[in-house]
Amino acid sequence: MLAKVNRIARAEDFRSTVRRGRRAGLEHAVVYVAERGDSSPTRFGFIVSKAVGNSVVRHRMARRLRAVGHELLPSYPTGRDVIVRALPGSPEVSWSILHGEISDGLERSTGKR
Which residues, by range, are in coiled-coil regions (predicted)? Predict the structure, then answer.
């Protein structure tokens, strides 16, 4: 589980990250990363729309995304906001593929290659 300081909760923070953040389109997700310009902890937010599935599927997908964020957090630089938008078809993807895609998306959207 992500700690409260590592979660994006306000709608305005979601909006600004999606609007001004760098985008990495993946097969099963879209990753947006925006730098905040400070050294505060990195925050993650997740968007899982009704297009992904019914409420049970959406909540399971959100839990999987939070777990990926929790695993990637220690190796990721501070001072950034990250939004992961799940795409339709993502619930059927294995854990390793989902983890790998999001990790790749974070690298692509921060310009680290």
Answer: none
